[in-house]
Amino acid sequence: MKATIKKIIHEAREVRSFRLEPENKLNYLPGQWMYVRLSADLRHHFTISASPTEDLLQFTTKFRPESEYKQVLWQMKEGNEVEINGPFGSFVLDEKDTTPRLFIAGGIGITPFRAMIRYVADRQLNLPVTLLYSGKNTDEMAFVGELQTANCKLQIIETEKEGRVDEAKIKKYCPDYLERTWWVCGPPAMVEAMVELGQKMGVSADKLRSEEFTGY
């Protein structure tokens, strides 16, 4: 269906959120994604970074100069129309499952977690969440200010200062990691490394969930 770009928000360096007004309401679960088509041959999928509890539809993404899609997207203005299709995806929050969670986000992989954490807060769910959010530095990380005031245990990890997320950091910031389900989202190499680390640290396969964000 068609959707109008109502607002473009600069979230961080080279990161923007695009708030849409669809012609019909889109019902979705926190963590799901949708296709956004800019033209006949330019289409890509994005996590819906808004929560279903919010009165808006939004996706958030980072600019890549080598991407024709991103070059066109960055030229879009408020009032322009795009075409959306969705929702899709199973990397979603089930509010009936109150198992404590460890969210591990790399870069723009924060988007599904932003939606989930906002949903937990708005619905006042009793769901313990620890979020390890990793990025080069906070200038390039979206939603940092918002997450710092959210009802979750947040640890920002600036990799240029502290290095990448590793076993020592997980044990330090989330000592009960074996009792939690792990949710990992970010670039493929980061996701693969975190899943392997979880297995090495004794986390059972049924407690490891992941979603990769590929370049485009």
List the helices and strands and how they pair.
Elements: E1 2-12, E2 15-22, E3 33-39, E4 42-47, E5 57-62, H1 68-73, E6 81-88, E7 101-106, H2 111-123, E8 129-135, H3 144-148, E9 153-158, H4 159-162, H5 167-173, E10 181-186, H6 188-200, E11 208-212
Parallel strand pairs: 7-8, 7-10, 8-9, 10-11
Antiparallel strand pairs: 1-2, 1-6, 2-5, 3-4, 3-6
Would you kindly provide a written description of the structure presented here, covering whatever features stand out?
- 22% of the residues lie in helices and 35% in strands.
- It contains 6 helices and 11 strands.
- The chain has helices spanning 68-73, 111-123, 144-148, 159-162, 167-173, 188-200; strands at residues 2-12, 15-22, 33-39, 42-47, 57-62, 81-88, 101-106, 129-135, 153-158, 181-186, 208-212.
- The strands form 2 sheets. Strands 4-3-6-1-2-5 form a 6-stranded antiparallel β-sheet. A 5-stranded parallel β-sheet has the order 9-8-7-10-11, with helices on both faces.
- Helix 3 links the parallel strand 8 (129-135) and strand 9.
- The chain starts with a strand and ends with a strand.
- The mean pLDDT is 95.
